[in-house]
Design brief:
10 helices, binds magnesium ion, 8-stranded mixed beta sheet, Spore Coat Polysaccharide Biosynthesis Protein SpsA, Chain A, about 15% strand, alpha/beta, about 50% helix, binds uridine-5'-diphosphate
């Protein structure tokens, strides 16, 4: 037995949730390693025997589902969930989280860039009484300079807008059945799990790990998808951009009042030539730009409302394998 005196909860049943989109290249290795981890956790009596791995096929166009079927047939602890089409990473994750009935769930990317070695620490933290355990990256040297810089800037921006999100944590985390039950009540279509989980509450903690390079296959998060997730993260949680528009409008209004006074003064008091092209054309471009930007931000929120009012399902399960 490897359990310490500080443990208060008994060994929970564990569901490991793995969203997979075109992951045929990594899946065999991933399954093998996760099964090994599960076995190790069972042997040290950290988890209950009936713990399982859930592979969610997010509408892959390659042989991902075939690989899932084969591995599920070959080994006991693997279940497959096939979505009817590609719903995106966050929805695939949600499909997994809402489908399991184990006591705790740990979500992890299929490429195993996150260190499965810390799963043990996550479970120990749960047994000490934490309902959410975030995996937090110690440093980001596996990422390109661009991704590193933009991620840092983004987390700062979220913080500044009052959106509480664990710094440098992605979707590698443990949640308890209590958190999962609460998550069912969050009906929003624009889902940003990283922002929602902290709003659920309960006690949480973090474990540190190092992220490694993707071994097989390519990133399924091209720049477009990354930007979309980034915008969702802000507009799903904060109305600050809308308020900024109003502020910007006010500042420009005051500025234009001052400018008018100056123009009048030149006209009436001095005899300098009336400023010509620049002073009339520049403000036009400037105001045009601000207006378009503001309409864009408004549109972003309007589209959120539009999507939410339709109450469309966030994922559709085509079939499941136990
Ligand atoms: N993923 C998914 N649906 C998508 C895109 C990605 O389920 O539409 C999964 C993907 O299979 C992987 C995880 O989300 O398990 C993270 O993707 P990836 O590793 O490509 O992102 P990166 O690590 O490059 O940010
Ligand atoms: Mg990855």
């Amino acid at each position: 037995m490897n359990t310490s005196d500080t443990d208060t909860r008994s060994a929970p049943s564990l569901a490991i949730i793995v969203p997979c989109f075109n992951e045929q290249a990594v899946l065999p290795v991933t399954c093998q390693r996760l099964l090994g981890t599960l076995e190790g956790l069972r042997e040290t009596h950290r988890i209950a025997p009936h713990s399982r791995i859930y592979l969610i096929d997010d509408g892959s166009t390659d042989a991902t589902w075939d690989v899932i079927e084969q591995t599920a047939a070959a080994s006991d602890g693997i279940c497959g969930i096939k979505l009817s089409r590609n719903f995106g990473h966050q929805n695939a994750l949600l499909a997994g989280l809402l489908s399991v009935d184990e006591e705790i769930a740990i979500s992890i990317d299929a490429d195993l860039q996150d260190d499965i070695g810390v799963i043990e620490q996550m479970i120990d933290a749960y047994r000490r009484g934490h309902d959410v355990v975030y995996g937090v990256r110690r440093k980001r040297d596996a990422d390109s300079l661009f991704k590193r810089m933009s991620a840092q800037l983004y987390y700062r921006l979220l913080r500044a807008m009052g959106i509480s999100i664990e710094y440098n944590s992605a979707d590698f985390r443990l949640v308890s059945h209590r958190v999962l039950r609460a998550l069912r009540d969050y009906g929003e279509v624009n889902l940003f799990l990283r922002g929602i989980i902290p709003t659920i509450g309960f006690t949480s903690t973090t474990v540190l790990y190092d992220r490694v390079d993707r071994e097989h296959g390519e990133t399924k998060y091209p720049i477009g998808k990354m930007l979309a997730l980034a915008v969702d993260g802000i507009t799903s949680f904060s109305a600050l951009p809308l308020r900024m528009i109003a502020l910007l409008g006010l500042i420009i209004f005051i500025g234009s009042l001052a400018l008018s006074a100056w123009v009048l003064w030149i006209r009436l008091v001095s005899d300098i030539a009336i400023p010509g092209w620049a002073s009339s054309v520049l403000p036009m471009y400037f105001l045009g730009g601000i207006q378009l930007l503001s309409i864009g931000v408004l549109g972003e929120y309007a589209s959120k409302i539009y999507m939410e009012t339709k109450r469309r399902p966030r994922f559709i399960i085509e079939k499941t394998l136990d």
